[in-house]
Amino acid sequence: xxxxxxxxxxxxxxxxxxxxxxxxxxxxxxxxxxxxxxxxxxxxxxxxxxxxxxxxxxxxxxxxxxxxxxxxxxxxxxxxxxxxxxxxxxxxxxxxxxxxxxxxxxxxxxxxxxxxxxxxxxxxxxxxxxxxxxxxxxxxxxxxxxxxxxxxxxxxxxxxxxxxxxxxxxxxxxxxxxxxxxxxxx
Length: 186
Fold this sequence. Notes:
- The protein is mainly α.
- The chain is built from nine helices and three strands, in the order αααααββααααβ.
- A three-stranded mixed β-sheet has the order 2-1-3, with no helix packed on it.
């Protein structure tokens, strides 16, 4: 009986104390913030800001904005994404970074999402990275490009491998492939 008393009385005391404590409203009410964040669509301003960020960190300006890398990105936004006359020459021919502001001028959201989701280009454009992006990120990039407005001239057209581009251009030479395997001795 003595051991039961040692257990029951402390247990009743703890129960009584817990009943006296008031439950905080925050503990009993789940926060609606995560649900709201998941269902709220970003505003156009938010999409444009996200698109600018993605363009900046994604390396889009490195090719599509002339001189961007030369001045460590210190180019006004008004000059971003105008394409480049400096081509990338390799075994595939010569490709030129497109003027994205003209490329997207006649597109709407749906056309851009289809275009960017199915894009397959020649080197050196990392089209696989664009295709791998979430739809909302691609939409944000589009909204940012559209916010800049159409400007500039179209980039030069693709040149096939047998045509030499005008200078300046980047000459990309691929390393030789692996040596052929000798037939197995049999």
